[in-house]
Amino acid sequence: MAVVTVRSAAGLRQEIEARGHRLTADEPLDAGGEDSGPTPYELLLAALGACTAITLRLYAQRKGWPLDGVEVRLEHRRRHRADCEECEGREVLLDQIDKRIELRGPLTDEQRARLLEIAERCPVQRTLTRPIQIVPAR
Length: 138
Description:
- By secondary structure, this protein is α+β, with helices and mostly antiparallel strands.
- The protein has two domains: 1-37; 39-129, K homology (KH) domain (GMP Synthetase, Chain A, domain 3, 2-Layer Sandwich).
- It is 30% helix and 28% strand.
- The protein has helices at 40-63, 109-119, 123-129; strands spanning 4-8, 14-18, 21-25, 69-80, 93-104.
- The strands form two sheets. Strands 1-2-3 form a three-stranded antiparallel β-sheet, with no helix packed on it. A two-stranded antiparallel ribbon has the order 4-5.
- Helix 1 crosses helix 2 (109-119).
- The chain is globular.
């Protein structure tokens, strides 16, 4: 089980603690923050990217494949959904994450293809693409 504690600091800055590690989240200056750390969405992308890279490294290691490095570039955006049947005239925005993966090393085409398949199965991506329940603790 993962436990993370977030405490408000000055302005919009948030101090994050996870297993004794400390991080800061904030908003950019133009959004009213002090730009003292990544935004919450940037942290979300970082979690997905890190999980993807770790998953690929572990898989390649287990298979004995020559994966020298992984770079995952992620971009989050919201786009309008034009074909929403239940919208009844409302504007509907869908979150979209574009994920570009660069695999480094003398891999075969088959190994590269398999690693890209495995990248879609990292635990964080599975969490983000399944229904998730966020329960307020009382």
